[in-house]
Amino acid sequence: MRLAIAAAFALLASIGAAQAADASSLNPAAVTFKLPDKLVWRDPESSPTNQAVLHGDPTKPGLYIVVNRFKPGNFSQPHFHPNDRYVTVLKGTWWVGTGNVWDPATTVPMPTGSFVTHFGKQVHYDGAKDEEVWVLIVGEGPATRTEVAKP
């Protein structure tokens, strides 16, 4: 998984570097890239949390890398995933909480650059308070999500 995390950071670095360089000089057999304006978002207008897949398929077994974009005021409810997920905050402050009781007032701020591990089968919730937040998520699929029953 450390290799996957390193690959994710390399991908982000290549996106930034590609903006500064002439892409026609790159050998497509050696490097591929996708500039930010070419990301395909799941539902850019109406979804409170949006997603762009950078690598793999989160619905299938295997490595996946996605960017999730939280609109201001959007939080998930308590839930868990079957596998560990590795999250890097790319933009904004992401708020993280744990436990079965949803309470955004008890969440902890994770500013841009923070790295968070969501351990498999452990209950958490997260989201954005007053600004848009982007997070990079690396994990092993399938990336299912199980909501926790409200107490």
| Helix content percent band | 10-25%
What value does the Rg take, in angstroms? 16 Å
Oligomer: single chain
Q: What low-confidence regions span 5 or more consecutive residues with pLDDT below 50?
A: none
Structure summary:
It contains 1 helix and 10 strands. By secondary structure, it is mainly beta. It has one domain (36-147): Jelly Rolls (Sandwich), CATH 2.60.120.
Structural description of this entry:
- It is a single chain.
- This protein is mainly beta.
- The protein has one domain (36-147): Jelly Rolls, CATH 2.60.120.10.
- Helix content is 13%, strand content 35%.
- It has 1 helix and 10 strands, in the order αββββββββββ.
- Strands 1-2-9-4-7 form a 5-stranded antiparallel sheet, with helices on one face.
- It starts with a helix and ends with a strand.
- 20% of the residues are buried.
- The model has no long low-confidence stretch (mean pLDDT 87).
How is the secondary structure organized here?
Blueprint: H1 2-20, E1 49-55, E2 62-70, E3 79-80, E4 85-91, E5 94-98, E6 108-110, E7 115-118, E8 124-128, E9 133-141, E10 146-147
Keyword list:
single chain; about 150 residues; mainly beta; Jelly Rolls; 5-stranded antiparallel sheet; 3-stranded antiparallel sheet; 10 strands; about 35% strand; globular
